[in-house]
Amino acid sequence: MARKKKGRPVSGWLVVDKPEGMTSTQVVGKVRWLFQAEKAGHGGTLDPIATGILPIALGEATKTVSYAMDGTKCYRFRARWGEERTTDDRAGEVIDRCEARPSAAAIEAVLPAFTGEIEQIPPQYSAIKLDGERAYDLARAGETLDLASRLVRVDRLTLVGQPDADNADFEVVCGKGTYMRSLARDIGRALGCLGHVAELRRLSVGRFTLDKAISLDELAALGQGADLDSHLLPIETALDDIPALALTAEEAHRLRQGQAVALLRRQDFVRLETLMDESAERDVVLLATSAGRPVALCRLEGAEIRPVRVINI
Asked: CA 201, CA 96: separation in Å to the nearest integer?
């Protein structure tokens, strides 16, 4: 006998304004409990000291988490000069100090070196896996890790303020896998003053923005039920950058059964040309819909679409 699932089958995205001091996993657990949801996951980890946008996927939306994590992100962080720390943020222990402090002109001069596609070494305390173990677990056990540099993308890096000589505020628009802690550390080294992240706030993840966010305190005040569900965004919110293809009811039924759908009619050629134009020469992944509802994430192979993840709502 199949095990009965715990919780209710609620599906959609919730945009949480994460509070400081909680891990992303703790926030997911709290949201899942409040919604009494069967499944939940998040679209991109935030460090405990960080606040801001943490998209939470419930139910069938968990099948689109990887697409949310691939979205462009915007952060604002405060770098504190004069100290380098084990975690590259204020939570870590001081491992080196420097008395030098940079001017605004000096800071502006080094920023172009950290813009575009750059090589970045992740923090020792990061979620990267080494031989199956998280780097932060190994670091906490006292190991010094030799982490390989990775190519990341920084679209925009702006100095937005200097509250005093010890601190500078930056706004960053970047791609997947870019560490703000590494940026603060590396900018501090380039300036010869050392540095770490003192404050960090994520302002957006793809289409998920602060104007759609709700705090955990506000959620808890709503209790459980329909008032909570009214804050959910559609599953396809995380898929706005993926081309969509409208299907007939019969085609949608075939996809839900795990079968490919052939697009061979004259009117299908127009749909295919549009998809190819939108996707250029990328590997074509699309969202199949029917009657305005998502059916499946699919892959276009020649004149057929094949289901990758069926969305059961």
From this structure: 25
